[in-house]
Amino acid sequence: MRNRSILIATLTAALAATAAQAQSPKEQFNAETRRIATRYTDDKKLCGDEKDSGLRMQCLRDAKTEYDKSMALAKAQYKASPAKPGPCPDCGKVSSVVLGEKSGDSSALGLIAGGVAGALLGNQVGSGHGRQLATVAGAAGGAYAGKKIEEQAKSSKVWTVNVQYDDGRQAAFTFDHDPQMLSGDRVRNNNGQLVRN
What we know:
Blueprint (H helix, E strand, L loop, with lengths): L1 H19 L4 H24 L4 H28 L10 E12 L5 H16 L5 H25 L2 E10 L4 E6 L10 E5 L2 E4 L1
Antiparallel strand pairs: 1-2, 1-4, 2-3, 4-5
């Protein structure tokens, strides 16, 4: 009788181990504790069939000891099992990459040079008060033009990578170089830096 119980328990454990491969640690623990409880119930029934009261009591003590050991082992394995990583809150995919141009910074040099050139040109128009007005207007227009020309000369390309996070949020990251990312690429925000996932 006892050998049959051990054989059944061994087969049940093998089947449980196969099924446990596709389960979470919590599901594995619950399945293992159910298996242990079922085995303990079966062992107590076998002990109840024993005619000698001394042997029956020893059988029940042995069954309880096996139950306690198995439960302690199952709890230890559950606590030691690594937790599954949760969903990545900073993961998503590239929704678009836009190439644009960023205007450069202007300095006083562009403003002054444009103003002087505009004043010289304005000074050559008209006479009297008209010439003075043309000089002032030329200086103002030249300063503005000089500023814009300098900004254009110092402009640079900029790549904007738009990201749709898995949780629905959206963000945009700018690069001063080609990030080598395409629409649909899986990415992750790593402390403010966009990296491929």
